[in-house]
Design brief:
heterodimer; A: 202 residues; alpha+beta; Cell Cycle, Spindle Assembly Checkpoint Protein, Chain A; five-stranded antiparallel β-sheet; 5 helices; B: 1252 residues; mainly alpha; seven-stranded mixed β-sheet; three-stranded mixed β-sheet; protein kinase activity (chain B); ATP-binding (chain B); centromere (chain B)
Chain lengths: 202, 1252
């Protein structure tokens, strides 16, 4: 009994882990789907009841790990507002796609120490559905013809101090964009919305 | 699971059914398309489709492909399932077929895209591409090559794909770089594929052929022949019976036939030659026909005759050779059969297995000729022109609609044209009217001239008579004189209404005349003086010229005086009057009633003086009624009207005066009644707070405005005149206003009098040329002179009146407005310029522009923001209230005013020229550019680069070469200004002097700009001072953001150090009684920070022992308080709204507060990297940014609070106190950190230095 109860209890730390993991897999999926990195450099992993693809490129892995760990810290402090994956054409430097993950933190969790109740399975399912949607987005996203690169932007609280490895940047919006909202999932402490913006085809 | 049912998620649920598009999909269309059919949605789609179809048929422009293109795109988006529902393929085929032969579209991007879309939709795209290649379609476009190569790549034929890329590049397909890139990417992919997989040569074409009679590897237990008989299934590549090869061939078995070896791999890797022969295109059914056709007795085989109707989509678009006659205006009652709302796709209907479609076939067959013995008698082309069939009615409807639209357009055009004509006509009418008025004016002018001449003559005569009168015993002569005069008067008035001259005038005429034998001018003066000094006798002179004559009869000034006044009222007259007026005002402490009473007295005297004459207006009219103006008689009669009307009627009595009429009359009234707020209240916008100075201008300006506003025409006066005679009862707005003027509240009975006063005064002011512009100007002149005792700039008004002195009010805005009155005969233009400045009734804000140089990382506005929205004006303390209400204590001078400053400079105890670093050269300033050279005082300076630029000055880096050694040079900063900056020069020297006198332990002389040399030319100046390569405080603040990078705690130590310095600088500056006026980060230059600070306990010791790390520059805006009387405060506002301090923005007096505000702002920029934004909350001014938590917040908050909330000019906070607190805290807590932190900032400064 106790075991199941604790399994369903979400702590702030636990929630942070879950969200960070989601980001990790989500970013990997996007990179694979949109062809930012060649598909051969991805390998399969099982998560959320799906077969996900994660990169095997060492450098990329290192970079992602660094970013995610920093984000974890911020999630823990509830200072992160959004995570944005910006996909940009290498040659023209034009932003072609913009994936935005909005994070809403329930601040009361900082104060109270009682953990929340939500089954991990449910969260897993929710996350899975979001990732499935990312995959399905191919139906309307325009084909990325040219070689692209990606950037990770994080929106934080205003007076947060910028850590060393990070720099300040603009929002990198897309002019004349079409926006599609995907599903949200919540761990009762963090709520994550997903949205993708792409250039209108005119 | 919970939110699966949302319609927005439809796309995800049906994702398998959605055909992805290369260019992406519109999300809305996607969702809409996937929705289970809703009735209205379907009909909407149908409508849109119908629109397209109609367009296709109706299009008559030059680019039919456009519609097809749009139609295709729409279909793609609307039918997400790949267009089957929308018949996409069919549409594509039609489109392509339509334009197949057209050369111009062969390389049109849209057309080629359509081909590519079709290729994507079909099974064997490579054939299609080959066809395109053969037909030379799309050869110039990269997309063609790209698409083809991609297809081939997918199929595995990499060699051919590569060849195609190369071909495209060779053909210089556009856009070239895109193709190049794609080629490179392709190559990378290939390379990767080669490296990563260990497959055998991938360039083995999948179109590998089966080899003839080759041995295959058997498959499975039963050793059956494999299904896939190409590639690895072959045991050997070589065809032929292998077994045979093992046996020695009996040479005798002659192989007299060759087994057809068809296994040479067709060179599929090369492009087929473009022979253009592909009229008939092998498609699958044909290539495979060997396998599909049933064998049969070939003798019986017949080629079936094509029978039956042609399928609709292959009907040619050929137009019939004749033109179908369409009868116009056919109004047939149409009962159009309604199309039922169509359902979408049929649910659950089985689809027949489709025959392999041959798109090319369809395309090619379009120009199938109809059977020769058939000719369609209907517009087949129109019916089948689009994708769908159209019915006749639809076609006709389309045609009809088009016609309707055309008609509508024409109608509108006509209307516009008519309106245009109307307007033109109206305009012409107005112009004509104008002309008319002008002409009349001219006539009147002339008449008046003549009249005046007459008057003068008469007056001369009379004067002579009067002189003769002096002989006391000549009573008889008197009588004679009387007779004469009366006669002359009569004569004089012979063309007038003689009956209107009451005899009493004559007696009165004599009496005063005798007593005043002075020159006319004096009389006039006296008259003028009267106004101010309550002299009775000459009041009557305030009349019209005609009235003058009447005045004569009642004892007005001599003709000569009038004459003189009429011809040349000298400026001094007006000035004197003005000054007296002002003095009067001051003396009477602005009490309205008194002054009104004062005037009233005068008027009373008027009344007594001319008692008899006050028969309405008639009395004053007599003279005016000279022959040319017989028409006045009528109006005279009209005059027995209520006073409301009298005002303006009066005015029209004298048409010749109407030129000075409403406009000037009102103004003259205003002159007299400047303090009567009621008269000014017509506009009502003026607040009671205004000082009198502005009241006058404003009222006159306003009057001018309302006059001008009412008639947007030239010749306004005449126009009004007409109106007056025709509709005197105030039908016009202006008349109502005039009436208000005329009938002043406290003296309604004297409306007539007043008006006559007006007449005379206006006359007095007017010259012989009664030019409305001029008159207006003169009135304003008078008025404006009254305004201020300060010096003011002059402008256009002076242009029109050469004799008037140029003392005008100085407000830029007001000037403009006034200038426009006089300068412009286009009064409508004047209207827009005339603005009231009710709030700015205080002093003028004209100053030099404040500069706003860099602002690099500063994100929001380029200046501090003061939010006055929640500002509640505080209850002013007594002192300030006094200051505000009494105009005397506030220095009306604008401290930034250049003339004030010049005045100061002239009165220096030591003239500027005696300064050692002062050089004056009586020539034009040399042109300074980067790279040029100039010589000052015998020393050569080389201009290196431009450091900064502002509104009035540029700062260059110059290097001075030592005389003897051209290699050695020293760098300086040279400030080049287009107006000689003597003030700045003086202030800098003065500061150094005063600081030396203060003799403080901590020496701040190095923290103030020192001018090494000031060179002054006729049209500009150079100021040469030390060059500091570390940049300004703004640069420092910007660079520091990167250094601190989130670790604000460490930042505090440096900022505090700099803050202490800044506080110290401003403190000492104020101690010298000098206000900088423009404290901002751009104006503080950085010098080197001390690299380490010793740990001492005593602040003075610490700071005294260090070199100064900042220099305050740009004293061009500074104010020397010693030049003003003590307790002076200013109300002027800096011209650019952004740099105003809180007091300026809230209309309170200020002295040192402006510097303190600037100081607060500069510190703010240092801390936050942004300009300060303040707002008021519950009486306290706060800034929007909050201080870093890791700092000593109470201390910093106290600093900002003190600097932003200064109660009044008497309670300027003592910066020394603040500074000492900071010093103490610094020494106690932060000093130890300084040394380590300082290094970081030095690096930041190095960066700046390198840029310079």
């Amino acid at each position: 009994m106790a075991a199941t109860v604790t399994q369903n209890a979400i702590t702030l730390k636990g929630s942070t882990e879950i969200v960070a993991e989601f980001f990790m897999y989500g970013i990997n999926s996007i990179l694979y789907q949109r062809g930012i990195y060649p598909p051969e450099t991805f390998t399969r992993a099982q998560k959320y009841g799906l077969t996900l693809l994660v990169t095997t490129d060492e450098q990329l892995k290192k970079y992602l790990n660094e970013v995610i760990s920093q984000i974890k810290e911020w999630l823990f402090n509830m200072t992160v507002k959004k995570l944005v994956v910006v996909i940009r054409s290498i040659d023209t430097n034009e932003v072609l796609e913009r994936w935005q993950f909005d994070v809403e933190c329930d601040k009361t969790a900082l104060t109270e120490s009682k953990p929340r109740e939500k089954s991990e399975k449910e969260i897993s399912k929710e996350i899975g559905s979001v990732i499935r949607q990312i995959t399905a987005s191919v139906t309307f996203l325009p084909l990325l013809e040219s070689a692209c690169e990606f950037d990770l932007l994080v929106y934080t609280d205003k007076n947060l101090e910028v850590p060393e490895a990070w720099g300040e940047s603009g929002p990198q919006f897309i002019a004349n964009s079409e926006e599609v909202r995907l599903r949200t999932f919540t761990t009762t402490i963090h709520k994550v919305d997903t949205m993708v913006a792409y250039k209108k085809s005119d | 699971m919970t939110n699966r049912g949302r319609p927005e998620d439809e796309w995800e649920l049906s994702k398998e059914n959605v055909q992805p598009l290369r260019q992406g999909r519109k999300f809305s269309s996607l969702n809409a398309g996937l929705q289970p059919l809703a009735g209205d949605q379907m009909s909407r789609i149908k409508e849109e489709k119908q629109m397209f179809e109609t367009e296709l048929r109706m299009y008559s422009g030059g680019d039919p492909l456009e519609i097809w293109h749009r139609y295709i795109l729409w279909t793609e988006q609307t039918y997400p399932k790949g267009g089957r529902d929308g018949n996409l393929i069919h549409l594509l085929e039609r489109c392509l077929a339509q334009f197949r032969e057209q050369e111009r579209y062969k390389n049109d991007e849209r057309y080629v895209q359509a081909w590519i879309k079709l290729a994507d939709a079909c099974d064997q795209p490579q054939d299609l591409f080959s066809y395109m290649y053969d037909q030379k379609i799309g050869l110039e476009l990269s997309c063609f090559y790209d698409a083809w190569a991609t297809v081939l790549e997918k199929l595995g034929n990499l060699k051919k794909a590569d060849a195609i890329y190369l071909e495209g590049l060779k053909q210089n397909a556009r856009p070239y770089d895109v193709l190049k890139r794609r080629h490179e990417e392709f190559q990378k992919r290939v390379a990767r594929g080669c490296c990563s997989s260990e497959q055998e040569e991938v360039d083995v074409a999948m179109e590998d052929q089966r080899t003839v009679l080759s041995q295959l590897k058997s498959v499975g237990k039963k050793h059956q022949a494999p299904v896939n008989r190409v590639g690895p299934a072959k045991q050997s590549v070589q065809g032929g019976r292998l077994l045979q090869s093992n046996m020695p061939n009996p040479p005798q078995v002659a192989q007299n036939f060759q087994i057809l070896c068809d296994n040479e791999t067709v060179d599929t890797s090369s492009l087929p030659p473009q022979t253009g022969e592909w009229t008939h295109f092998p498609h699958r059914s044909q290539t495979n026909k060997e396998n599909e056709m049933k064998p049969g007795v070939w003798s019986k085989a017949k080629v079936p005759v094509k029978k039956g109707a042609m399928p609709s989509h292959t009907v040619s678009a050929g137009q019939p050779a004749f033109k179908v006659h369409i009868e116009e205006d056919q109004n047939q009652p149409m009962t159009t059969p309604r199309k039922l709302p169509e359902m979408g796709y049929q649910v659950l209907s089985s689809r027949k297995p489709e025959k392999p479609t041959n798109p090319i076939e369809h395309i090619k067959e379009t120009d199938a000729v109809e059977a020769p013995n058939q000719r369609s008698m209907y517009c087949k082309d129109k019916i089948y022109g689009g994708n769908d069939e159209f019915s006749f009615e639809e076609i006709r409807a389309a045609v009809w609609k088009k016609k309707e639209k055309q008609k509508q357009l024409e109608k509108e055009e006509k209307e516009l044209e008519e309106r245009h004509q109307d307007l033109l006509r109206q305009r012409r009418q107005f112009l004509e009217q104008e002309q008319e008025f002008k002409r009349q004016q001219l006539v009147i002018q002339q008449e008046q001239q003549a009249f005046l001449e007459e008057c003068k003559r008469q007056m001369q005569l009379q004067r002579q008579h009067f002189e003769k009168e002096r002989v006391p015993n000549n009573s008889s002569r008197q009588l004679i004189f009387e007779e004469k005069t009366s006669k002359s008067n009569v004569e004089y008035y012979e063309h007038g209404n003689t009956e209107n001259i009451p005899p009493q005038y004559l007696s009165q005429l004599r009496a005063p005349q005798q007593s005043q034998q002075t020159a006319g001018l004096q009389l006039q003066y006296e008259h003028q003086d009267d106004l101010t000094e309550n002299n009775q006798s000459l009041n009557i002179s305030n009349r019209t010229p005609s009235g003058v004559i009447g005045v004569l009869s009642s004892g007005g000034p001599t003709p000569e005086s009038l004459y003189k006044t009429m011809t040349a009222p000298s400026p001094t007259v007006n000035t004197r009057e003005a000054i007296q007026l002002v003095m009067g005002m001051f003396n009477t402490s602005l009490e309205l009633e008194k002054q009104m009473g004062w005037e009233e007295n005068r008027e009373d005297k008027n009344i007594t003086g001319v008692s008899g004459s006050n028969t309405g207006n008639k009395g004053f009219i007599p003279a005016s009624s000279s022959a040319p103006f017989v028409v006045f008689d009528e109006t005279l009669d009209k005059q027995k009207q209520p006073s409301a009307a009298t005002g303006h009627i009066e005015m029209d009595q004298d048409k010749e005066n109407n030129l000075v009429d409403n406009v000037s009359i009102r103004r003259s009234r205003s002159r007299l009644e400047h303090v009567k707020k009621s008269s000014i209240s017509t506009e009502g916008s003026q607040t009671d707070m205004d000082t009198d100075f502005y009241m006058i201008t404003d009222s006159s300006v306003r009057q001018a405005r309302d006059v001008f506003e009412d008639e947007n025409l030239e010749g306004i006066e005449s126009h009004q005149r007409d109106d007056i005679t025709l509709a005197p009862l105030g039908s016009h707005l202006s008349f109502a206003q005039a009436a208000k003027f005329a009938s002043t509240p406290f003296n309604p009975n004297n409306s007539a009098l007043k008006n006559s006063l007006n007449y005379v005064s206006s006359l007095n002011e007017s010259e012989s040329k009664v030019d409305p512009k001029w008159t207006a100007g003169s009135q304003i002149d008078t008025v404006s002179k009254v305004e201020t005792t300060a010096k003011e700039l002059s402008k256009e008004l002076t242009i029109s009146k050469a004799d008037l002195s140029p003392i005008m009010e100085g407000s830029a805005e007001d000037q403009d407005s006034l200038g426009s009155i006089t300068g412009g005969s286009h009064l409508d233009g004047a209207i827009s310029v005339l603005k009231q400045q009710p709030v700015r009734s205080k002093l003028k804000p004209v100053t030099k522009e404040t500069e706003n140089l860099q602002g690099s990382l500063v994100e929001n506005l380029g200046a501090h923001v003061i939010d006055t929205t929640s500002y509640i004006p505080p209850d002013l303390d007594e002192r300030t209230e006094n200051l505000l209400s009494m105009s005397i204590c506030i220095n009306p001078r604008d401290p930034f005013d250049s003339e004030t400053i010049e005045g100061f400079l002239k009165q220096l105890p030591e003239p500027l020229s005696s300064f050692s670093n002062f050089v004056e050269e009586d020539k034009m300033m040399p042109d300074i550019r980067v790279g040029s050279i100039f010589i000052i005082d015998g020393e050569l300076y080389d201009v290196m680069k431009l450091l900064g630029e502002g509104g009035f000055a540029k700062v260059y880096k110059v290097s001075q070469h030592a005389d003897d050694n051209l290699d050695m040079s020293e760098d300086f900063a040279c400030k080049v200004q287009c107006q000689p900056a003597k003030w700045e020069f003086y202030i800098c020297s003065e500061i150094q002097k005063r600081l030396s006198r203060l003799n403080e332990k901590v020496d701040l002389r190095d923290a103030m700009m020192k001018i090494k040399k000031g060179c002054f030319f006729i049209n500009g100046s150079f100021l040469i001072s030390d060059f500091h390569s570390e940049g300004t405080l703004l640069d420092f603040a910007n660079n520091c953001r990167q250094v601190t990078k989130g670790n604000m705690l460490d930042y505090e130590v440096i900022i505090m150090y700099l803050t202490i310095e800044l506080l110290h600088i401003v403190e000492k500056l104020h101690k010298c009684k000098i206000i900088h006026g423009d404290v901002k980060p751009d104006n503080v230059l950085m010098k080197d920070l001390p690299s380490s600070l010793p740990t001492v306990k005593n602040a003075e010791e610490l700071f005294a022992g260090q070199k100064r790390c900042m220099v305050l520059i740009d004293f061009g805006q500074s104010i020397d308080m010693t030049k003003y009387p003590p307790d002076t405060a200013f109300m002027a506002k800096v011209k650019t709204g952004d740099f105003q301090c809180i007091e300026m923005k809230t209309d309170r007096p200020w002295t040192y507060q402006t510097d303190l505000f600037g100081l607060a702002g500069s510190i703010h920029v240092l801390i936050f990297g942004q300009y300060m934004s303040v707002y008021q909350s519950q009486g306290t001014w706060l800034m929007t940014h909050s201080l870093p938590r890791s700092w000593n917040r109470p201390l910093w908050q106290k600093l900002f609070h003190t600097l932003l909330n200064i109660p009044s000019c008497d309670e300027i906070p003592d910066l020394a106190v603040l500074r000492r607190e900071f010093e103490e805290y610094f020494i106690a807590n932060l000093l130890h950190k300084y040394n380590s932190q300082c290094r970081k900032f030095m690096l930041a400064m190095n960066d700046i230095r390198n840029c310079k």
